[in-house]
Amino acid sequence: MAGRALRRRAVTLMTGTVLAAVACTVGPAAGVASQGPYGTPADGSRPPPVDCRATPCVALTFDDGPTGYTPAVLRALERQHAVATFFLIGPHALHHRADVLREYRDGDAIGDHTVTHPHLTLLPPARIRHELESAARQIASVTGHRPTIYRPPFGAWNAKVRAAAGGTGLSVVMWNVDPRDWKHHDPRLIERRVLAGVRPGAIVVLHDRYASTPQAVPYLLRALKARGYAPVTVPQLFATSGGMRSGVVYHHGP
After folding, report:
1. CA-CA 20 to 30 A from 39: which of 8, 24, 122, 164?
2. Cα distances (angstroms) measured from residue 128 to each of 66, 110, 116, 249
3. pTM
4. ∠ at Cα 158 (152, 162), nearest 5°?
5. Distance between CA 203 and CA 250 in Å, rounded?
6. DSSP-based three-state secondary structure for 142
7. pLDDT score recorded for residue 41
8. H or E element in which residue 162 lies
9. Which residues pair with 149 in a beta bridge?
10. Using CB atoms within 10 A of its CB, is residue 54 exposed (0-12), middle (13-18) or buried (19+)?
């Protein structure tokens, strides 16, 4: 009886060893993080920050979304393991919550682009503050985080717009590369115009509201990386050079 019991125990131990070996064979490879939604690490970790003082960086920014074209932009970014900055119109963020959360989970930066997309320089200070503050609250209701960066519609700002941004804790983000994708709906032309103007520290203005822009993004990312550029968010662009301050206007990075 004792001999049979010992033999059964030995078989059980051998079976457990084989199963463990099989589990190790079919499980994730050593050193490879499991992936969560949209290709991001399941543990929420991010790639190490890029020092844009030592590495040529470029910040791609997208205005006016989210829209029905935003998922195509996100797919292109995810496939290239790249990040960007999205300046959202408040009601659009409420209507396209899943896309906003996807941006947030992917590590993209999310900024304020007002509620009604007006020419703010034509409005009284109280209305300007309403546009910024209301959009910030709407975006925060989706992501749980209040934006700290802001893009003025049409690029229109003056002293009172800057003061309103500072009063609501927002940095004003402009750009220094504009392919005019709102006018030229040709993906390859958009790519060529960006590449002709981009320099280290560039902030590129694009829009995720036109069908042609998402088509340009995959080509653009590959071309930028081939030239040695690291695509970063606007806050990442300034992270190693003192960060960003509310009420300050930024046209390009270091």
Report:
1. 24
2. 22, 20, 11, 16
3. 0.82
4. 70
5. 9
6. helix
7. 38
8. helix 159-167
9. 171
10. exposed
Instruction: Match 């709407």 to its residue by tokens.
Output: 138
Element (H, E) at 138: helix 125-143
164, two tokens: 């309103």
**DSSP bridge partners of 102:** none
Name the residue type at position 166. G
* DSSP character string of 33-77: PPB-GGG-BTT---PPPP-TTTS-EEEEEEEEE--TTHHHHHHHH
Beta bridge partners of 232: 59
Q: Is 129 helix (H, G, I), strand (E, B) or coil?
A: helix
Residue matched to tokens 């399941």? 42
Cα–Cα dist 104/191, whole Å: 25
Instruction: Give the pLDDT confidence score for residue 30 in this predicted structure.
Output: 31
pLDDT of residue 39: 35
Question: Distances in Å between the alpha carbon of 132 and those of 94, 116, 125?
Answer: 15, 10, 11
Active-site amino acid positions: 63, 207
Q: Is the pLDDT of residue 194 over 80?
A: yes
Rounded to whole angstroms, the Cα distance separating 177 from 198 reads 6
> 């995720």: which residue's tokens?
208
Nearest to 205 by CA among 219, 189, 216, 194: 194
Q: Where are the beta strands (DSSP E) in 106-247?
A: 109-112, 149-150, 171-173, 202-207, 230-232
